[in-house]
Task: inverse folding
């Protein structure tokens, strides 16, 4: 979920609400803009899921369009850089080089588009590298995506894995970084296809640097990316690409059960009010674009003056601090009675979106080991989400454990602190799996 802080907002410390958007970073010569066009076919989830399924034959998916070296650091430079953001540096063994890949993928309706992502390679002697996929937390601003932002929050986990000797693959998702269009937030099918195609792009690019990616993929992600990680793991297990297989899964602080845990907490005031308002607005506008039918005009769900500007706040071009200052402090100020009722009693395509979102915990049985990381007092993704996901997966016979993280704050937030705390533990767990 978004990066936030209890400190006074600044350009560097306020939310990454949504966890970033440079307006015109389209890729020349790739595809036309419109990764998420104004039309909203009702079966967007089915289209993306079918395109990611085994047997999908579009050979262009995952092919690199461009690659840019973003620079590198020595191990001696990485340690203080990571430590400055609170990340564990005990596993840092190598320097790293970072690359931004732009690659071909599909949008939320199954149409061709491009996306960008970050690849971090270790400066090790190993030619064949174990691969980690890291899917990032919520962001609504294009420049805050891992391949564009250059701070330790956005890139820290990928660099930490790279410095431990892994090839770290971090998709920006659709509509973030240098991807065209608007990001379809909390749409696991398109997050899954973007992450899968980023793995393919990394595999295609690695030989240019004298490396090769091993078949086994270690999958992790934070907040929004926790659900994305489970979605990717499911796709790999079900054979979406026979050249990859999932080895282990380590999601961190996910909002897996939005209907049963997150929405009730939001309505009951258990979530930080400022972030709760942003999440509600982001979810409603995103799913209206993806699924259609959530509303015809923003004024149906959003009060004046927010109805006139709420979609602009989440189109990728508005910095997080600007968005937060422009939204009210409570849901009651943001939403009309109809909007509040939709959150209390989901129906129609909004209810369908909640069902699709929850399937990462309810519709499959992982065979690889799964560790769900959580932190008590999480003010954004309440821990009831993790309990519900673990219970559902265990009922299906999955090898799932829940790991309680030591209390940690990052910019005043336990939610953000869980990402920092879990990264080092995940690096060590993955390193020990052979």
Result:
């Amino acid at each position: 979920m978004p990066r936030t802080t209890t400190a006074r907002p600044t350009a560097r410390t306020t939310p990454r609400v949504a966890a970033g958007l440079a307006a015109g970073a389209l890729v020349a010569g790739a595809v036309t803009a419109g990764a998420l066009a104004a039309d909203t076919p009702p079966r967007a989830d089915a289209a993306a899921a079918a395109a990611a399924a085994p047997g999908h034959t579009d050979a262009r998916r995952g092919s690199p369009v461009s690659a840019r070296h973003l620079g590198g650091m020595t191990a001696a430079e990485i340690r203080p850089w990571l430590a400055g953001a609170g990340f564990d540096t005990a596993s840092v063994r190598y320097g790293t080089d970072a690359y931004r890949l732009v690659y071909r993928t599909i949008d939320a309706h199954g149409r061709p588009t491009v996306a960008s992502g970050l690849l971090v390679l270790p400066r090790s002697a190993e030619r064949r590298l174990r691969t980690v996929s890291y899917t990032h937390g919520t962001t609504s601003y294009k420049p805050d995506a891992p391949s564009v932002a250059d701070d330790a929050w956005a890139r820290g986990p990928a660099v930490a894995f790279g410095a431990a000797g892994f090839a770290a693959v971090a998709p920006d998702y659709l509509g973030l970084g240098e991807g065209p269009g608007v990001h379809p937030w909390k749409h696991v099918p398109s997050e899954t296809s973007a992450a899968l195609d980023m793995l393919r792009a990394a595999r295609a690019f690695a030989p240019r640097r004298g490396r090769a990616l091993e078949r086994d993929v270690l999958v992790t992600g934070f907040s929004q990316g926790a659900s994305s990680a489970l979605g990717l793991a499911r796709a790999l297990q079900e054979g979406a690409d026979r050249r990859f297989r999932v080895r282990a899964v380590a999601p961190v602080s996910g909002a897996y059960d939005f209907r049963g845990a997150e929405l009730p907490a939001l309505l009951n005031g258990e979530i930080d009010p400022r972030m709760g308002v942003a999440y509600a607005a982001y979810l409603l506008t995103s799913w209206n674009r993806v699924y259609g039918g959530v509303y015809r005009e923003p004024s149906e769900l959003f009060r004046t003056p927010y109805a006139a500007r709420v979609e602009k706040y989440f189109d990728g071009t508005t910095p997080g601090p600007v968005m937060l200052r422009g939204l009210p402090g409570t849901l009651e100020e943001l939403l009309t009675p109809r909007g509040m009722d939709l959150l209390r009693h989901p129906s129609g395509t909004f209810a369908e979106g909640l069902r699709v979102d929850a399937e990462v915990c309810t519709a499959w049985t992982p065979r690889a080991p799964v560790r769900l990381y959580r932190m008590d007092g999480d003010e954004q993704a309440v821990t009831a989400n993790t309990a519900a996901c673990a219970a559902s997966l265990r009922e299906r016979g999955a090898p799932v454990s829940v790991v309680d993280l030591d209390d940690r704050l990052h910019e005043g937030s336990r939610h953000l602190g869980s990402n920092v705390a879990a990264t080092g533990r995940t690096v060590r767990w993955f390193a020990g799996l052979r």
